[in-house]
Design a protein that fits this description.
Strand content of chain B: over 45%
Radius of gyration of chain B: 14 Å
Number of helices of chain B: 0
Oligomer: heterodimer
Shape of chain B: globular
Order of helices and strands of chain A: EEEEEEEEEEEE
Largest sheet of chain A: 6 strands, mixed
Shape of chain A: globular
Number of strands of chain A: 12
Strand content of chain A: over 45%
Chain lengths: 114, 116
C-alpha cells in the first residue's frame, strides 16, 4: 500500500536554528514528491516538488529538500528558520502511473520561538 | 489565477441532515480532487475528476457521499444523512490545464463541517 511517514509530529526551534523534517515514502514505481505548508488560518501551499532530475530541489522561502531514492526519503531542510516559518508542514507523494491522487503524511507542526 | 474557491467556509449541521459543498477550481484546470482532513492527520483522498468524468473514488467515500462535476468546471460534494464522524475539513484541489502533464495540485481553503 502507498504510504508517507513523517516522524516528527511537533518541532519547536529558536529563530536562526536549522531545520530538518523527515519524510519517508512507500510506493511501488516512480513517484513525484511534494512538501506543502499550511500557515495558521490559510490553505495548503506548495513549498517545493520533485519530479525528476537533480535530487536536491529548492523551493520558496529558502527551503530545500533532498530525494534519496535508496532511503525512500525526501527530507525538508532550511538552514535558518524564522518566526514566520511557524506552520504545519506536510510531505506528500504521488505515483506517476496515473490517478494523480496525493498521499499525505500526518504533518509536522513547527513552532519557531523568538 | 484567483485560486481554488470553496463554499461555504464553515457548516454546522444536525446529525441526519444532508449537506452540499461547492468547489470552483482554478480556471481551465481539468483535474479536480476532493480530500478530507481531520485533526492531527494529513489530507486523505476522497475522489478525483478529469473534466466531468469521476475517475477514482476512495473506499473512504461511503454510499452517503456523492460528488459531481457536471460541466467539467465547478464540483459539488454532497453528504447525505450526516454522522458525527463526518465532521472534518473538506478540501478541494485542482491541477493541470489542457496540454499540461502532471503538475502540482492547488488547494482551496476548505469547508469545515461540524455535525452536532
Amino acid at each position: 500500500a502507498q504510504s508517507v511517514s513523517q516522524h516528527n509530529h511537533h518541532v519547536i526551534l529558536s529563530e536562526a536554528a536549522s531545520l530538518e523534517l523527515g519524510c519517508n515514502y512507500s510506493y511501488g514505481g516512480t513517484v513525484n514528491l511534494f512538501w506543502y505548508v499550511q500557515y495558521p488560518g490559510q490553505h495548503l501551499q506548495l513549498l517545493l516538488k520533485y519530479f525528476s532530475g537533480d535530487p536536491l530541489v529548492k523551493g520558496i522561502k529558502g527551503f530545500e529538500a533532498e530525494f534519496i531514492k535508496s532511503k525512500f526519503s525526501f527530507n525538508l531542510r532550511k538552514p535558518s528558520v524564522q518566526w514566520s516559518d511557524t506552520a504545519e508542514y506536510f510531505c506528500a507523494a504521488r505515483g506517476t502511473g496515473g490517478g494523480n491522487k496525493l498521499t499525505f503524511g500526518t504533518g509536522t507542526q513547527l513552532k519557531v520561538e523568538l | 489565477d484567483t485560486g481554488v474557491s470553496q463554499n461555504p467556509r464553515h457548516k454546522i449541521t444536525k446529525r441526519g441532515q444532508n449537506v452540499t459543498f461547492r468547489c470552483d477550481p482554478i480556471s481551465e484546470h481539468n483535474r479536480l480532487y476532493w480530500y478530507r482532513q481531520t485533526l492531527g492527520q494529513g489530507p486523505e483522498f476522497l475522489t478525483y475528476f478529469q473534466n466531468e468524468a469521476q475517475l477514482e473514488k476512495s473506499r473512504l467515500l461511503s454510499d452517503r457521499f456523492s460528488a459531481e462535476r457536471p460541466k467539467g468546471s465547478f464540483s459539488t460534494l454532497e453528504i447525505q444523512r450526516t454522522e458525527q464522524g463526518d465532521s472534518a475539513m473538506y478540501l478541494c484541489a485542482s491541477s493541470s490545464r489542457p496540454g499540461q502533464m502532471n503538475t502540482e495540485a492547488f488547494f482551496g481553503q476548505g469547508t469545515r463541517l461540524t455535525v452536532v
